[in-house]
Design goal:
- There is one protein chain.
- The chain is an alpha+beta fold and about 130 residues long.
- The protein has helices at about 15-25, 50-60, 80-90, 120-130; strands at about 5-10, 30-40, 40-50, 65-75, 95-105, 110-115.
- A hairpin with a 2-residue loop joins strand 5 (about 95-105) and strand 6 (about 110-115).
- It is globular and about 40 Å long.
- The two termini are about 15 Å apart.
Length: about 130
């Protein structure tokens, strides 16, 4: 899935539109996107088909962002399924920067996590999730 970008925005009309227009003008195809906001702050979590291009747009446009390698995890599709994975990553000292649901299968949700320590996250996943 490539790199996941978590972009900080102002929580005001047009902020999200400005980000998506800047990406579109450079011909960047969004593969996944989500976002939200509360108070004065908002954010967008996105993946694209080209990691270098959005990085250049975000830098040149002055958008604060963090990025990370995307890890795909099959999370149980039930109340608490996502919480269980998030709590275990936290207990391993892994900070989750972004999350996107990218698909559903029988009983699971394909979840793309961007984290601060990929090696630690993968080590935990291999130790706790069969076939990771």
């Amino acid at each position: 899935m490539g790199t996941q970008f978590v972009v900080q925005l102002d929580n005001r009309p047009g902020s999200f539109a400005g980000l998506t227009r800047a990406l579109a003008e450079r011909g960047i195809n969004l593969r996944g996107i989500s976002g939200g906001g509360a108070g004065a702050s908002a954010y967008a979590v996105l993946t694209t088909d080209d990691d270098a291009a959005p990085r250049a747009v975000l830098r040149s446009s002055g958008y604060p962002y963090v990025e990370g390698e995307t890890l795909i995890v099959e999370v149980e599709d039930k109340p608490g399924g996502l919480a269980a994975v998030a709590e275990k990553l936290a207990a391993a000292g892994v900070d989750i920067r972004g999350v996107l649901f990218v698909g559903r299968n029988d009983g699971t949700v394909e979840t793309a996590f961007s984290v601060d320590d990929v090696a630690r996250a993968i080590s935990w996943l291999r130790a706790h999730i069969v076939d990771y």
